[in-house]
């Protein structure tokens, strides 16, 4: 059992909380591998050049990640009071989420399984 009062435990837990602005998209309908191709292209870049890269990238994941990056920028500006010109992408990663299992009918009464992959995409910003 934890020591201290419940409010003290919560205070200690919130003191260790990460204060960097971030945005997370859960259950994005794109596989981790396809999302990582786009995330690798923008990791470490400032937000202006990252938005430019995402705007002209032909992959489907880039449109999803562009929307997520704009959300992270808005979080930094409104919640943390940061200057947009000094922001850069410190961390960005995609983790595996649940897999949607579907069935495709095949010849002679067989059924093949189709697995539709999803991912959790996270973008963390910081100021230079």
From TrEMBL:
<dbReference type="Pfam" id="PF00237">
    <property type="entry name" value="Ribosomal_L22"/>
</dbReference>
<comment type="subunit">
    <text>Part of the 50S ribosomal subunit.</text>
</comment>
<dbReference type="InterPro" id="IPR018260">
    <property type="entry name" value="Ribosomal_uL22_CS"/>
</dbReference>
<dbReference type="GO" id="GO:0003735">
    <property type="term" value="F:structural constituent of ribosome"/>
</dbReference>
<dbReference type="GO" id="GO:0019843">
    <property type="term" value="F:rRNA binding"/>
</dbReference>
<dbReference type="InterPro" id="IPR001063">
    <property type="entry name" value="Ribosomal_uL22"/>
</dbReference>
<comment type="function">
    <text>This protein binds specifically to 23S rRNA; its binding is stimulated by other ribosomal proteins, e.g., L4, L17, and L20. It is important during the early stages of 50S assembly. It makes multiple contacts with different domains of the 23S rRNA in the assembled 50S subunit and ribosome.</text>
</comment>
<comment type="similarity">
    <text>Belongs to the universal ribosomal protein uL22 family.</text>
</comment>
<protein>
    <recommendedName>
        <fullName>Large ribosomal subunit protein uL22</fullName>
    </recommendedName>
</protein>
<dbReference type="GO" id="GO:0022625">
    <property type="term" value="C:cytosolic large ribosomal subunit"/>
</dbReference>
<keyword id="KW-0689">Ribosomal protein</keyword>
<keyword id="KW-0694">RNA-binding</keyword>
<dbReference type="InterPro" id="IPR036394">
    <property type="entry name" value="Ribosomal_uL22_sf"/>
</dbReference>
<keyword id="KW-0699">rRNA-binding</keyword>
<dbReference type="GO" id="GO:0006412">
    <property type="term" value="P:translation"/>
</dbReference>
<keyword id="KW-0687">Ribonucleoprotein</keyword>
<feature type="compositionally biased region" description="Basic and acidic residues">
    <location>
        <begin position="9"/>
        <end position="21"/>
    </location>
</feature>
<dbReference type="InterPro" id="IPR005727">
    <property type="entry name" value="Ribosomal_uL22_bac/chlpt-type"/>
</dbReference>
<feature type="region of interest" description="Disordered">
    <location>
        <begin position="1"/>
        <end position="21"/>
    </location>
</feature>
<dbReference type="InterPro" id="IPR047867">
    <property type="entry name" value="Ribosomal_uL22_bac/org-type"/>
</dbReference>
<comment type="function">
    <text>This protein binds specifically to 23S rRNA; its binding is stimulated by other ribosomal proteins, e.g. L4, L17, and L20. It is important during the early stages of 50S assembly. It makes multiple contacts with different domains of the 23S rRNA in the assembled 50S subunit and ribosome.</text>
</comment>
